[in-house]
Amino acid sequence: MKPIAIGICAAFFFAFTFVLNASMEASGGHWIWSASLRYFFMVPFLLVIVALRKNLKGLILEMRKNPLSWLLWSFVGFGLFYAPLCYAAAYSPGWLIAGSWQITIISGSLLVPLFYTTVQTANGPLRIKEQIPYKGLALSSIILLGVLLMQFEHAQGISIQTFIMGFFPVLLASFAYPLGNRKMMALCEGRLDAYQRVLGMTIASLPFWLLLSGFGLATEGLPNASQMVQTLIVAVCSGVIATVLFFQATDLVRKDMKKLAAVEATQSLEVLFALAGEDWDDRS
């Protein structure tokens, strides 16, 4: 229950992403800056935390072992997760983003065959491909189907282009985030704590964010002060607090694919927290 509880807490802080990104979009902020500034702002906070915990040297040594793997899976786990999510929020209605994000309920289970577990045999260690937890997947699929059916009436009122621009980026994000996280857990094998891993992946993803922000600077100009402040809040709440909590939760169950998929599924609760936050904001 502890990993699930931590995952739910992470979902609460992740919800700030949905609420504040919607606010930034409404005030004219461009999605490129909403995405890239978050990771730029995360770096100094995480550097201070990891340095105070005296774990910075260990992280640097670990990253030097497999720099290409760090770059690849950080790009997948952070770049292909957050940039598509911000893009979708800029061009599609909130209900479509919310409904599509519920795919996280099953995305972790569907990724299982991409990983192997090592078992000891009389002839030595043997790598066995993990199997999809079909019973859990069936139940999750029923829940997801119910959510999608609830969105069907709304979907009839939008164009195909709007649907594509909202659904497929979120679909990509829902698989990229757990895939990047799982691959990095397998690469580190428990040698790094959650703070180190978040900092390492943030640093390794910076080349992508620099390229994206360079494109944004050339095409859209600099972000306004309001967007910078709100992105800073997102960086602290979602980027630092939520990501560290989520990584801690997944670390606790990294050797059990069924429990890992269950922890990853808690992120679907982000939408409920986000809707509650928007409702409170409207009332206030």
Automatic annotation (TrEMBL):
<feature type="transmembrane region" description="Helical">
    <location>
        <begin position="229"/>
        <end position="249"/>
    </location>
</feature>
<protein>
    <recommendedName>
        <fullName>Multidrug resistance efflux transporter family protein</fullName>
    </recommendedName>
</protein>
<feature type="transmembrane region" description="Helical">
    <location>
        <begin position="158"/>
        <end position="177"/>
    </location>
</feature>
<keyword id="KW-1133">Transmembrane helix</keyword>
<feature type="transmembrane region" description="Helical">
    <location>
        <begin position="198"/>
        <end position="217"/>
    </location>
</feature>
<feature type="transmembrane region" description="Helical">
    <location>
        <begin position="70"/>
        <end position="90"/>
    </location>
</feature>
<feature type="transmembrane region" description="Helical">
    <location>
        <begin position="96"/>
        <end position="116"/>
    </location>
</feature>
<keyword id="KW-0472">Membrane</keyword>
<keyword id="KW-0812">Transmembrane</keyword>
<feature type="transmembrane region" description="Helical">
    <location>
        <begin position="31"/>
        <end position="50"/>
    </location>
</feature>
<feature type="transmembrane region" description="Helical">
    <location>
        <begin position="136"/>
        <end position="152"/>
    </location>
</feature>
<dbReference type="InterPro" id="IPR032713">
    <property type="entry name" value="EmrE"/>
</dbReference>
<dbReference type="Pfam" id="PF13536">
    <property type="entry name" value="EmrE"/>
</dbReference>
